[in-house]
Amino acid sequence: MKKTIESLGDIGDVLAEEKKNTVELRIVECPFSDVKRELLKRDKVPVVCPFASLVLKATEETFGVRMRTASIDIDEEECRFVMERLE
């Protein structure tokens, strides 16, 4: 999953943590970081991330289970995606 995301472009770091029913993925410094920072400076929270669908698909394929995006948290430093397993 990490290699797939890193292969998309200039990404600083990808951190993943698996728990019982969730996977948290943190992306630090993606190719869209400049745009994200500019929006946040204007008190606008990005509602769409080009990586969101890819992150979900990569997580499903990595773990071989259906998952859904439970949350996406964005700040100036990183984006955090939490995916949870669907039973």
Shape: globular
- CATH third-tier fold name: Phosphorylase Kinase, domain 1
Count of β-strands: 4
Give the class-level CATH name.
Alpha Beta
> Which percent range fits the helix content?
25-40%
The mean pLDDT is 80
Largest sheet: 4 strands, antiparallel
**How large is the share of residues in beta strands?**
25-35%
Spatial gap, N to C terminus: 21 Å
N-to-C SSE series? HEEHHEE
Domains counted in the coordinates: how many? 1
Would you tell me the structural class of the helices and strands? alpha+beta
Radius of gyration: 13 Å
**Secondary-structure arrangement, i.e. CATH architecture:** 2-Layer Sandwich
The tally of helices reads 3
- The neighbouring-strand order within the major sheet is 1-2-4-3
Spans with pLDDT under 50 lasting ≥5 residues? none
Your description of this structure?
With 87 residues, the chain is an alpha+beta fold. The protein has a single domain (2-85), classed as Phosphorylase Kinase, domain 1, CATH 3.30.200. It has three helices and four strands; from the N terminus they run H-E-E-H-H-E-E. It has helices spanning 2-6, 33-41, 52-63; strands spanning 13-18, 22-28, 67-74, 78-85. A four-stranded antiparallel β-sheet has the order 1-2-4-3. It is globular. The mean pLDDT is 80.
